[in-house]
Protein: TTLL3 monoglycylase
Amino acid sequence: AQEKKIFMVQGPYPIIRHLLRARGWVERKLPSMGRQLEQHRGDQNKQRQKTRPRNGGGGQGEALLNPCGGAQPFLGTTDPLHYAWPPAEEEEEKEEEQCDEDPNGIHDLMSYLVRDRLPNFIWTNFLEATDHELLQQDHVVNHYARVDAFTTKEGLCLSLQNLPWIEQADPNTFFPRCYRLGTTDEQEAFIEDFRLTAARSLLKLALEEAGDRPVRTKQVPNSEMRAGESHLSHPKHSTAPAGSPLYPELVEEALEVCKQHLGVLRHQDIDRGTPSPCRTCINWDRFLQEYYRVAHEGAGLVLTRQQRKQCQNLLRRLAEQLPQLGMEGKLNVWILKPGAESQGRGKAGESREHTSHLGGVPPSLCSPGIVCTTRLEEVLQLARGFTAPSVRVGRWVVQKYVEQLLTIFGTKFDIRQWFVVTDWKPLTVWFYRDCYLRFCSWPFSLCHLERARHLCNVSVQKWYKTSPDQDPRVPPDKIWSNKQFQEYLAQLGQADAWHQVLVPGMKAAILNALRSAQDQVGFRKGSFELYGADFLVGEDCQPWLLEINSCPTMRPSSAVTRRLCANVQRDTLRLVLDRKNNPTCSIGAFELIYKE
Structure:
């Protein structure tokens, strides 16, 4: 019935508007007062960066959409994980919607006729635009409330910690270990993890010694790589002066710590109540300073034959207990992130000395933001010292950097993977078979931590010129489709990796993240939500979940994303609208992967 086909679109979604009009739907446009209020609320949102996190993705401070136009805000929960906040995918830029083709004013006239009617379908870029109390049961909205539990870094970190209690699944197999620094227990757990990782890394570095020759890390120049070769992240080595000698007990201490840790792992229960090997009499300050010299300053290690065998044996046995031992590398790189941020604001980044070389990069990306570091004291100092207005004290997370990752033509990339939830009770999840890769602008290196090398987000990379050292085979628009990636894997002799390793791994990670947060989401029949999950790929082609965005950008940055973003919007409408009346209709590239 025509009276059931009134829609509202808020945000940069011309494709959605066009597709709904083609179906015979009538748009209830925001009146001029409403548009002014929307702009005013956008200005207020910018001011709220000083006190509230970004990407709440379904917070509770919603606005009342009333038939007379305009909006009346009301207060909601003050739960720290449930702030009302427009998802940050679109936040940095002022998007201008494409002008609609309406030469005869027909759409404007139809919109005027339904100006006092509530829309039956709402597609908006943040949940504040709707009031669920005014919606009828059959009205459709493209967001759920309280999805912060898995669409913020802090929320995802906390939810996945609880996963072993909910499912027989280990988050360490798909999510780089993560700690909330604002919590005393987790800060202590991070310090312990950093120390243990340093001890394991020292053993790895020791085993890489050629004879007793002192070594230091050095990235292989891009020109030395063979055409078509898979560029992995493990650094090469070159000789370097040993400098002042290391204290002779260094290797023995690392071996002893790893032995104790192995004993703990073999008897550890889910409560983690076993005493830590980090509470031994070892002088950790001295040990870490010496480890830094070996890992980052070129100090040499001298191993006996017996010690080499012990290192090999211990690392082999630890690998059986630690799913992340392979991906964690040997330089102990960690990422410090604002817990409620998204879209990589300052991510993976650049240490403070690099900010003077950013050229035209906006100040928002020059702020400390998200930072990569290799030293424990820096993490703790940065977490205490950052005063970014958008971040509240204590809302920082620190996460292990995936050092052993797959690169393409010597360049880091990640995968943006879409999925839709159409129900939470029972949980119903649809996976999109098409996705795209995002490349960095500069060649990958663990010895240099600039954003241009380590953060793949388009919203960040667009500010950087392609490095002259970049392999010319990296696409100029820094985007690939999954089909292009599959062709590349086939050239590497890994033709089956996409369907046998990557896709099953991404599906499992998404489902585990959703199940871990399921009880916290604000469920409503008739709603749905399209999400964008970001994955890194390990050198073994295993996907590692980084984050989930509640409002993935639909703004095309390349020919690939122009096609794929249009397709996923088309198929989402097929899934949530057309399928209601015709269960056998085409839903494009979506496939049902889970229904309770």
